[in-house]
Structure formats: structure tokens, C-alpha cells
Write a structure and sequence with these properties.
There is one protein chain. This protein is α/β, with parallel strands linked by helices and 363 residues long. The chain has twelve helices and 17 strands. The protein has two domains: 220 residues, P-loop containing nucleotide triphosphate hydrolases (Rossmann fold, 3-Layer(aba) Sandwich); 102 residues, Winged helix-like DNA-binding domain superfamily/Winged helix DNA-binding domain (Arc Repressor Mutant, subunit A, Orthogonal Bundle). 36% of the residues lie in helices and 22% in strands.
Length: 363
């Protein structure tokens, strides 16, 4: 094989394990601590469920150093590409979110952009706003998504676009590019499959966040996955047609609420009885306990318990012992602890049980 004349250039970025081992990298930065990290972030949801309200709240909080979703957001330069809004609508929305506070001077936005120049526009703005690492929001991707090139498949087009957006943030550690995008308008077992288009967009992004909410309902879920972040699911509420907030005082409480919703929603009355009975007995129950308490045949109890485990509504701690996904911290000081469980206080457990029971009436 012929030695290429530009071999030195081709191998200019080659590193070895010793070099990598000696590096000290800063911790992962967050635009919204614990939820929206640095990098290329794809926010996906159905049209008109409040995605733009959420990203605008984040933009305003970051520009001033305020709160979004009830979470303290660090101040940083902000560029909001509000491509579905005019000045009047954007002013009205800002005033609704800010109440009596003025719109932050550091909040910068653009309402019109040439579809073929979106990356150039962002790069031009970043040139003057590098410190601290900025937050750029593109709302929405559909406004600037180009057609496929000649001979290019839809996947190749999506991956090309996603890679071009990711390349912007790769050049500036700590920066977040939050891209608002519509979903497929169809149910998906894996929430990553909810991303509209091919897997090219999802594959290129560092993080995917899905915002889900049923029409005419305030309760929703935020689902997060990515290369550098742990998967998470958090319960949220959309209030007054404008404001998103966590269901709970922090992300951990919102995660517990989301687990409870997953464990109890969309089930038959009898399955709900089984799940609630197990939640009431966090130390664990066996099929005989369930059968006796709920007047079931032991074989029926086994079927319900097995289905609940398969659906991640309950967990099997050991052979024949079933426990809630959300475990209540036992009051007894000598009680054994499950290090893999999510522990909540007895009062929280009581709230979980009563709120779950409410799904029997309104769910």
C-alpha cells in the first residue's frame, strides 16, 4: 500500500491512551441544571402543546439568571430564533411569563432567517457571545429544514442537518443549542422514535428531550435521554396556557411523580388494586398476600403481578417477592435498605397512594 503524501495531516489529531489519561475536562455544563445539558439538544413534542412557551421561559431565565420549570438557571448570553413568531406575539408572551418584570436586555432574538443560512447566522452571533458559553434556541427546525439534495435519502438529509447543527456546539464547550422540533404524530414504544423524520436527526443530537401532554390536560411528562446524561422522566404541569412547572419541589420529586403515573395510569381497576396494594406494602408482598387481600385466585394474582412487572409498574426483588418501583423508606431503624430503590417518606407514600387512587375516577 502506498504511503499517502498527506499522512501527517491525516494523523494530526491522533492521540494515545496516555494523553487521554492525563487530560482534565470540566464537568458537564447545563443550560437548565439537571435537565438540559450542553451540546446539541433536540426538544420534541406535538404541535401546540406548549414547546415554544417552554423554550421561551428558558431563554428569559437564562438571559437574566432566573427560574424556569422552578429550577434556578445560570445567566448566560441568549439567542432565540423565534421563527414562528412576530414581534407583537413575542412581546405578549414575554410579558405573560414575566408578569410585571421588564423583558431582559440580554434577551436577543431573531424572527426571520434565510433557511440556507441558519448555521452561518448562529456562528456570526456566537463570534460576539462566547463567554460565558451561550444558549441558542432554534424554534422550530421545520422552518429551516432544507430539501434533500440530488441523490440524497431522507435519512442522509436529516443526518447532514443534525450534524451541521452539532458542529456549531462542538466548537464551543459549554454551549447549548436547543432545537425545537415536532413529533411524528403517532404513538411510539420508544420515545426517541417520536422524533419527526428519520433517525438521522435523533442520531446526530447529543440529547433528546420529549415533551408529552394530552390535549385539554395540564399534566405532562418530560423524557430525557442522551450520550452524556442519564435517562430520566419527570412529571410537569402546563398552567394558564403559558407556564410549565415541575410537579414537585425539585427534579427528584418530579421523577417520583412520573414513576407513580407510569405505575398506575392506563390500567384496569383490578390491576390498579394490585399495584396500589403493593405500593402500600413497600417491604414487599407475595402472591398469596395479594390473593388474600383482594379476594383473588392465587393464579390470578400471579398473572396480575407478572404483567405489572413486565410493564415496569412493579419490580420483582427476588423470586416471588414483589415491590413498588417507588419504595417507601421504612420507619424501623433496623429495617434493611434497598440501595437500588427510590425512597420516599411515609407522608409522600400516602400522597402517592391517594393520588394514584384518583386515577380510578378521572384516569
Amino acid at each position: 500500500m502506498t504511503y499517502p503524501p498527506d499522512a501527517d495531516q491525516l494523523l494530526a489529531t491522533l492521540r494515545d491512551g496516555a494523553w487521554l489519561d492525563a487530560q482534565e475536562f470540566p464537568p458537564l455544563a447545563y443550560a437548565v441544571p439537571g435537565l438540559i445539558p450542553e451540546g446539541s439538544v433536540l426538544l420534541v413534542g406535538a404541535p401546540k402543546i406548549g414547546k415554544s412557551w417552554l423554550v421561551l421561559a428558558i431563554a428569559l431565565a437564562a438571559a437574566e439568571g432566573g427560574r424556569a420549570l422552578g429550577i434556578e438557571v445560570p445567566q448566560r448570553p441568549v439567542l432565540y430564533l423565534a421563527l414562528e413568531d412576530g414581534h407583537r406575539r413575542l412581546q405578549d408572551r414575554c410579558r405573560r411569563l414575566l408578569a410585571n418584570d421588564p423583558i431582559p436586555e440580554r434577551f436577543q432574538y431573531i424572527t426571520m432567517i434565510e433557511p440556507s443560512r441558519v448555521t452561518d447566522t448562529i456562528a456570526a452571533w456566537i463570534h460576539w457571545h462566547k463567554e460565558p458559553p451561550p444558549l441558542v434556541i432554534l424554534d422550530t427546525l421545520g422552518r429551516v429544514l432544507p430539501p434533500a439534495q440530488l441523490g440524497e435519502s431522507p435519512y442522509q438529509r436529516d443526518y447532514r442537518v443534525g450534524t451541521a447543527l452539532k458542529r456549531i456546539v462542538d466548537g464551543l464547550p459549554g454551549m447549548t443549542l436547543l432545537v425545537n422540533h415536532h413529533d411524528r404524530k403517532a404513538n411510539a414504544d420508544d420515545f426517541v422514535d417520536a422524533v419527526s423524520g428519520t433517525h438521522g436527526l435523533a442520531g446526530a443530537a447529543d440529547t433528546i428531550i420529549v415533551l408529552a401532554r394530552d390535549r385539554q390536560e395540564s399534566a405532562g411528562l418530560v423524557k430525557v435521554t442522551g450520550r452524556d446524561v442519564a435517562e430520566g422522566e419527570y412529571a410537569v404541569r402546563f398552567l394558564d396556557g403559558a407556564v410549565w412547572e415541575l410537579q414537585g419541589q425539585d427534579l427528584e420529586a418530579a421523577r417520583e411523580k412520573a414513576q407513580m403515573v407510569r405505575a398506575t395510569s392506563g390500567v384496569s381497576d383490578r390491576m390498579l388494586d394490585v399495584v396500589l396494594y403493593v405500593i402500600e406494602h413497600p417491604e414487599g408482598v407475595r402472591r398469596g398476600d395479594v390473593a388474600k387481600a383482594l379476594d383473588l385466585d392465587p393464579r390470578q394474582a400471579s398473572v396480575y403481578l407478572g404483567r405489572a412487572v413486565a410493564a415496569n409498574r412493579l419490580k420483582r426483588a427476588e423470586r416471588g417477592l414483589y415491590m413498588p418501583v417507588i419504595s417507601v423508606a421504612l420507619l424501623s431503624p433496623e429495617a434493611p435498605k434497598d440501595n437500588n430503590a427510590t425512597h420516599i417518606s411515609p407522608r409522600q407514600a400516602n400522597d402517592v397512594i391517594h393520588e394514584a387512587a384518583a386515577y380510578r375516577v378521572v384516569g
